Amino acid sequence: MSSKAVVLFSGGQDSTTCLFWALGKFDLVHAVSIVYGQRHSVEIEAAKTIAQLSNVTHEIVEVPQVLVGTSPLVSGDPVGQYDCVDDLPGGIEPTFVPGRNALFLVIAANRAASVGATDIVTGVCEEDYGGYPDCRRAFIDSMEGALSLGFSGDEKEFTIHTPLMRLTKKATVEMSMSMDGCMDAVAYSHTCYNGQVPPCGKCHACHLRQRGFDDAGVPDPLITRLESHGARI
Amino acid sequence: MSSKAVVLFSGGQDSTTCLFWALGKFDLVHAVSIVYGQRHSVEIEAAKTIAQLSNVTHEIVEVPQVLVGTSPLVSGDPVGQYDCVDDLPGGIEPTFVPGRNALFLVIAANRAASVGATDIVTGVCEEDYGGYPDCRRAFIDSMEGALSLGFSGDEKEFTIHTPLMRLTKKATVEMSMSMDGCMDAVAYSHTCYNGQVPPCGKCHACHLRQRGFDDAGVPDPLITRLESHGARI
Questions:
Q1: Residue B78: cis peptide before it, omega within 30 degrees of 0
Q2: What are phi and psi of A73, to 5 degrees?
Q3: Which chain B residues are closer than 8 Å to A99 by Cβ?
Q4: Smallest Cα–Cα separation from A34: which of A62, A7, A12?
Q5: Lower Cβ count inside 10 Å, N or C end of chain A?
Q6: Test the B interface: residue of A66, A70, A122 with most B CBs within 10 Å
Q7: What are the beta bridge partners of residue A5?
Q8: Is the CB of residue B88 less than 8 Å from the CB of residue B204?
Q9: In what order do the strands lie in the sheet with A57-62?
Q10: Among B174, B163, B176, which residue's Cα sits nearest to residue B216?
């Protein structure tokens, strides 16, 4: 029987890297993108493009009303702007959306049950994540157990893979470089919280992405691609 | 500080009983009804009516695309019809929607975080529930831990109350009878999987509801109310 996995796929750099990781491990990959009230649809368009390039099945699930909170990612308030990466505040970032990763994992598990998979892949990472409590492996372990119990009663039903969990952004870039075709896909990924193309370069997400490429000593293929089309960045 | 709880409130008999249980325990109750693709809106109308009668804040969250599966509750296929309660099949009922209670609890936790509550109430029950794995306390315990870790990092952040967990339907009826105003509200609750008013009397849910009232030796106040309005049942 062919192995199958569901990948939570936002269209960002991290989930694009996870998509290619999954393509190397499983026979079939089903990518699931979730529109939960983000400020912009740019990342969903990025997800569509990368899914087509990668030849995976792709589903977009729209859940606009499900999560509420004060995060600018769902409230419509402006996202914080920082001059450089060292200015980023500590603690839990105000962009935290309470329950976001829990919701995503429930949807992924539902789709896994639907396509006959028990493996789920998500790009959450304890490094560089603004202190989001739902990006830690302890949370993932707990959800893995809860979803297993809730879907089949078997405590080991699901395996939630987090290939980036302990990686710095630099190491994530290096992983992308090691996988055939991944950097070509990352060139279409979207990260900027402000939904700007070219990216704003000032938000939390832009700063962390840029630091990863700087530390790895390679240019961001998205910037290279946009510049080759004449963008000034 | 006043105590607050979020109640998952479908508009059915069990969640109506839980709503009154919560009203006895907490100063403020916020009821959350979730429309997830059920075959009918009758139970949401029931929820609205009961929330008004009970003077609680009430929110309806529409998530029509979030859950998929073969359950007739989301697929549109016909629901099983049985002549009597003893004909109900064992094992997991085909009405099981994979991830439903996990999704509901994530939404409840998100709303709890939003209104400043850490107590969540749900009417799930290990008795009489068609073998649904997500109605067992082991699952609830696991989700309580997972959501706590994911929302605040504190393993004890949330308490998920399941006042009906170990009750038979008969005992649930007796609990309703013990709480002021509860039976008057149950008279407006909706249970029938087929969305019929008067209830079809043939589906799994109708049979279990009727058995509870029969075992408790009291008439179902919904039936009494409908008959007083001239319905033939």
A1: no
A2: -70, -20
A3: 106-107, 109-110, 113, 147, 150-151
A4: A62
A5: N
A6: A66
A7: A29, A119
A8: yes
A9: A57-62, A28-35, A4-8, A119-121, A159-161
A10: B174
Contact A54, A181 (CB under 8 A): yes
A54-105 residue pLDDT tens: 989 999 998 877 888 777 767 667 767 777 767 766 666 777 888 999 999 9
Q: Closest residue of B to A34, CA-based?
A: B66
Cα A7–chain centre separation: 9
Looking up tokens 């749900």 gives: B122
Q: Which CATH class is domain B4-228?
A: alpha beta
Residues of B in contact with A139 (CB under 8 A): 146, 149-150
The residue with tokens 């609680």 is B56
CA–CA dist B46, B50 (Å, integer)? 6
Give the contacts of A65 (CB within 8 A, at least 6 positions apart): A37, B61, B62, B63
**ipTM confidence score:** 0.89
Instruction: For residue B110, give the nearest of A69, A109, A136 by CB distance.
Output: A69
* Nearest CB to A63; choose among B63, B142, B149: B63
Cα A173 from Cα A118, distance rounded (Å):
27
Q: What residues of A are in contact with residue B142 (Cβ under 8 Å)?
A: 142, 145-146, 149-150
Q: Which tokens sit at A154?
A: 């078997």
pLDDT digits 0-9 by tens, B194-232: 889 999 999 888 999 999 999 999 999 999 999 998 877
Instruction: Give start and end residues of each alpha helix (H) in A152-194.
Output: 169-178, 182-186
Q: What order do you get walking across the sheet with B119-121 strand by strand? A: B57-62, B28-35, B4-8, B119-121, B159-161
Closest CA to B161 of B229, B105, B205, B86: B105
